[in-house]
Amino acid sequence: NAGVTQTPKFQVLKTGQSMTLQCAQDMNHNSMYWYRQDPGMGLRLIYYSASEGTTDKGEVPNGYNVSRLNKREFSLRLESAAPSQTSVYFCASSTNRDRGPVARPAETQYFGPGTRLLVL
Amino acid sequence: GNSVTQMEGPVTLSEEAFLTINCTYTATGYPSLFWYVQYPGEGLQLLLKATKADDKGSNKGFEATYRKETTSFHLEKGSVQVSDSAVYFCALRIYSGAGSYQLTFGKGTKLSVIP
């Protein structure tokens, strides 16, 4: 049971290049998330996926796209990287809890080890 | 809106000292509160949580009590160890209806414990 895995661990891009950050979890979790961590800013939510087939914007979605490929995998794409996207990116996942007609993500999130991205 | 404010670091303590990291929050509803810890080079790990007022979360000697009257969730440990050196994040989570929710983290407090 590897938990949440992320690839690559480190990447250097030039401005305007594109890349996809990969995330996978083997805990059968329904919900997955992408955050970025910047010095003095804490973690900020970029996008999340409450269940397979759904995605929603978080606090800082501009410049990013996501794909929930299947229940296990949730990728983050930078179409045209900018220096402002230099950051450490974390993927996380959580189970869902059913309450009433709408299932919602459980409260404890499990984080991957992070991808350090440098955009020159 | 929702926000989390935690004391700025870095905090440097000697081994066996008492630790307090302050955390206060602003929320429009009834959030669950969390402390996450990030060890060097790693992702975040849940340290403890509390889901309603007056709940106390505890783990690995750390404690935090959900104080609704002061909107606080301060992290404490009676005797820190070198291995506790890490960045600590306070966070809140609130359900905003219709299947959506909000997650908000504080900026983090770096703790260094020296022998």
What is shown here, in short?
The complex is a heterodimer of chains A (120) and B (115). Chain A is mostly beta strands and 120 residues long. Helix content of chain A is 0%, strand content 54%.
Total number of beta strands of chain A: 13
Low-confidence stretches of chain A: none
Looking at the structure, what is the overall shape of chain B?
globular
Q: Roughly how many Å is the radius of gyration of chain A? A: 14 Å
Q: Report the principal-axis shape of chain A.
A: globular
How would you classify the helix and strand content of chain A by structural class?
A: mainly beta
State which percent range the strand residues of chain A make up: over 45%
Total DSSP helices of chain B: 0
* Class inferred from helices and paired strands of chain B: mainly beta
Kindly report how far apart the N and C termini of chain A lie. Answer: 36 Å
Q: Could you tell me the number of beta strands of chain B? A: 12
What's the pLDDT, averaged over the residues of chain A? 88
User: What's the Cα radius of gyration of chain B?
Assistant: 14 Å
- Helix content percent band of chain B: under 10%
Largest interface: A-B, 25 and 24 residues
Distance between the termini of chain B: 41 Å
Our count of helices of chain A gives 0
Biggest beta sheet attributes of chain B: 6 strands, mixed
